[in-house]
Every structure is written in structure tokens, then in C-alpha cells.
């Protein structure tokens, strides 16, 4: 039974590993702000509550299947059961069992969470990949997978990770971790409008823990204050999909929203990337998103805003993509620029 409770402890730590890291992952430009301490406070609260809640639930309903993890008795070495070597041994036994039974999606997910506890995000990512391949329509599993991918990349929420986050939200628009990760990614790229939208959605998730809802609201307030201090030329764009084309779009399709100069060049002055399930959406384009210092929004008086849906996620337009344009507008124009995606690239 010692080994069993070791596994229980590992699973509890795994659950915490799935919840706490997004709260503690603070962007470099945010460090030192009050939000960092609040993230840490909420993480501490979860560390206290999750094990107690999980233990209470287990004592009420039990989970005999967890004993299947233990395929051999723990060696009597005289060491404490919670020693790192013992944890590694328990996880190794689980990995060995999965090699013999590779179609156990729940087992792969358990192994992935155990690897996260052991600070092995690379191994966790591979285990989550196996679990997702067996159970691709589990939004929570996809969100955990995205978190492991980010951890394996030093906290970088890259395009591959964003695709997994988008897939999770396409399955469950209220998946809390996926919303938190999407907000963090938007904040990191200084797309404060999108970050606020994701945090607003997170704060409204049904049955969300009050502490998390309060933290989301604090993030919203502080991001709005930060955005107000950032004085860079920008345009606000409202993008929607024509009703006639809605059936041609999958929730995970990529949407590019970008500004073009009126000089005939197709090099974007600023670009944002969304997923189709976010439409309709409000997007902010500004000078911080320019590809070259010599071509910024502020350098051109007349621009056009275009939006394109790409099923393949390619930056270059392709036949079958869906597109829309604002036509020429003033870059200094007040108000919101509307773009409707209503045409098909031939």
C-alpha cells in the first residue's frame, strides 16, 4: 500500500503541476509588478486546497483502478517512500506497463502528469502526445498537453502550442486552462485587447473557483492600465465571417488579420493571428507588430486591413482561402475598422 499512496501523491502533485505553472509563468516585462505576487498567492491557495479536496473525494468514491499501476512490490530499502528514487521507480513501472499496453489513454495522461511532477516536461510532452492521439477530443487533455509543450520550450507559447490551445477551445470554449494559456500568449505578444478578451471569458466560466475569477479580473484591470500607458500608433479592427461562408470554416482554421500600405507592397505592416472559433473578434494592430523598422503603420497615411482564413495555417494566400478587405482607409482614422470575410481566393 505504500507504493499505492506514493502514486496517489504523485497524481496529486501532477494535478497541481497542471494548474499552478500557468499562474507562475510571468512574462519578462511583467516581472516585479503586483500581478506577480498575486499569481503566487493564488498558486499557494491551490497547493493547499487541491490535495485536501482530492483526498476527500477519494475517500468517498475510491479508485481501485489506480492499484493497477503497481505491478511489483516496492523494494524494502529502508528509505522514505517519498524519496525521489522511489518516485522515479513508480513512474518507471507505469511507463513499463504502458509499453505493454500502449492503448491506455488514461495511463498515458497519468504518466505525463507524473513526468511534470518530476520536472521532465520533454518526456511529459511525448506522453501527452500519445494520450491525445488516443483521445483527441478531450479539451482538458489538450490544454494539459499545451502547457507541457510550453514548459518544454522554456515557457514559450509558440505556434505549435497555440494550435493545441485553439483545438482545446474549439472543443470546449470554456476550458479554463486553455483560456488562461491563450490569454498569456496574447499578453506576451502585447496583444492586450485579445488577452483581456480571453481573461473575460475565463472569468465567466460556469462553476469557476471564485479565487480564479478574481485573479482573472485583476489581470483584466492591470492589462487595461498597462495598455493605456503604451502610446504606439494603432488601429482597432472588428473582424467577422460572412454567414454564407460559415459552413466552410472549421473552428481550428487559422485567421490572419493584417494591415497593408497603399504603395502596392504585400508585406504586412502589422499582423495578428487568431483561430476561426474566435470570430467575430476585435483586434488591435500597432507599430510593435511591424516586420521591419522602415515599414510601420505610423509611416503611412493610407492603409487597408485584410483578413484571411487559412485551413492549412499558411502565411501565403492559397486557392480556397477565405478573405475580406476594408478597402483603403486612413491610418489616423478614429473608430473601429470593420472587415467582413466574404470572398474566396481563386
Automatic annotation (TrEMBL):
<feature type="repeat" description="TPR">
    <location>
        <begin position="105"/>
        <end position="138"/>
    </location>
</feature>
<dbReference type="InterPro" id="IPR051263">
    <property type="entry name" value="C-type_cytochrome_biogenesis"/>
</dbReference>
<dbReference type="InterPro" id="IPR056413">
    <property type="entry name" value="TPR_CcmH_CycH"/>
</dbReference>
<dbReference type="InterPro" id="IPR011990">
    <property type="entry name" value="TPR-like_helical_dom_sf"/>
</dbReference>
<feature type="domain" description="Cytochrome c-type biogenesis protein H Ig-like">
    <location>
        <begin position="235"/>
        <end position="341"/>
    </location>
</feature>
<keyword id="KW-0812">Transmembrane</keyword>
<dbReference type="Pfam" id="PF23914">
    <property type="entry name" value="TPR_CcmH_CycH"/>
</dbReference>
<keyword id="KW-0802">TPR repeat</keyword>
<dbReference type="InterPro" id="IPR056412">
    <property type="entry name" value="Ig_CycH"/>
</dbReference>
<keyword id="KW-0472">Membrane</keyword>
<keyword id="KW-0677">Repeat</keyword>
<keyword id="KW-1133">Transmembrane helix</keyword>
<feature type="domain" description="Cytochrome c-type biogenesis protein H TPR">
    <location>
        <begin position="94"/>
        <end position="204"/>
    </location>
</feature>
<dbReference type="GO" id="GO:0005886">
    <property type="term" value="C:plasma membrane"/>
</dbReference>
<protein>
    <submittedName>
        <fullName>Formate-dependent nitrite reductase complex subunit NrfG</fullName>
    </submittedName>
</protein>
<dbReference type="InterPro" id="IPR019734">
    <property type="entry name" value="TPR_rpt"/>
</dbReference>
<dbReference type="Pfam" id="PF23892">
    <property type="entry name" value="Ig_CycH"/>
</dbReference>
<feature type="transmembrane region" description="Helical">
    <location>
        <begin position="41"/>
        <end position="59"/>
    </location>
</feature>
Amino acid at each position: 500500500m505504500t507504493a499505492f499512496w506514493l502514486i496517489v501523491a504523485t497524481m496529486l502533485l501532477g494535478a497541481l503541476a497542471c494548474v499552478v505553472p500557468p499562474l507562475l509563468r510571468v512574462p519578462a516585462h511583467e516581472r516585479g509588478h503586483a500581478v506577480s505576487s498575486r499569481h503566487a498567492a493564488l498558486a499557494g491557495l491551490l497547493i493547499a486546497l487541491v490535495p485536501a479536496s482530492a483526498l476527500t473525494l477519494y475517500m468517498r468514491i475510491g479508485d481501485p483502478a489506480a492499484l493497477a499501476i503497481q505491478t511489483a512490490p516496492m523494494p524494502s530499502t529502508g528509505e522514505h517512500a517519498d524519496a525521489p528514487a522511489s518516485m522515479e521507480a513508480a513512474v518507471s513501472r507505469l511507463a513499463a506497463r504502458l509499453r505493454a499496453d500502449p492503448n491506455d489513454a488514461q495511463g498515458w495522461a497519468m504518466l505525463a502528469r507524473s513526468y511534470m511532477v518530476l520536472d521532465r516536461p520533454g518526456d511529459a510532452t511525448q506522453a501527452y502526445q500519445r494520450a491525445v492521439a488516443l483521445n483527441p477530443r478531450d479539451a482538458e487533455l489538450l490544454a494539459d498537453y499545451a502547457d507541457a509543450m510550453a514548459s518544454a520550450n522554456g515557457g514559450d507559447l509558440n505556434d505549435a502550442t497555440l494550435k493545441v490551445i485553439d483545438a482545446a477551445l474549439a472543443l470546449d470554449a470554456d476550458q479554463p486552462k486553455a483560456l488562461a494559456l491563450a490569454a498569456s500568449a496574447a499578453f506576451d505578444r502585447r496583444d492586450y485587447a485579445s488577452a483581456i478578451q480571453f481573461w473575460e471569458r475565463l472569468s465567466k466560466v460556469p462553476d469557476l473557483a471564485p479565487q480564479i475569477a478574481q485573479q482573472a479580473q485583476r489581470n483584466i484591470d492591470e492589462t487595461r492600465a498597462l495598455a493605456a500607458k503604451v502610446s504606439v500608433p494603432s488601429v482597432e479592427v472588428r473582424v467577422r465571417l460572412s454567414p454564407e461562408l460559415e459552413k466552410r470554416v472549421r473552428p481550428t482554421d487559422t485567421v490572419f488579420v493584417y494591415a497593408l500600405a497603399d504603395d502596392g507592397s504585400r508585406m504586412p505592416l502589422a499582423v495578428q493571428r487568431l483561430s476561426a472559433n474566435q470570430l467575430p473578434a476585435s483586434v488591435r494592430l500597432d507599430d510593435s507588430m511591424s516586420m521591419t523598422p522602415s515599414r510601420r503603420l505610423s509611416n503611412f497615411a493610407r492603409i487597408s486591413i485584410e483578413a484571411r482564413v487559412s485551413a492549412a495555417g499558411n502565411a501565403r494566400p492559397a486557392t480556397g482561402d477565405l478573405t475580406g478587405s476594408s478597402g483603403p482607409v486612413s491610418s489616423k482614422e478614429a473608430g473601429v475598422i470593420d472587415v467582413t470575410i466574404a470572398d474566396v481566393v481563386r
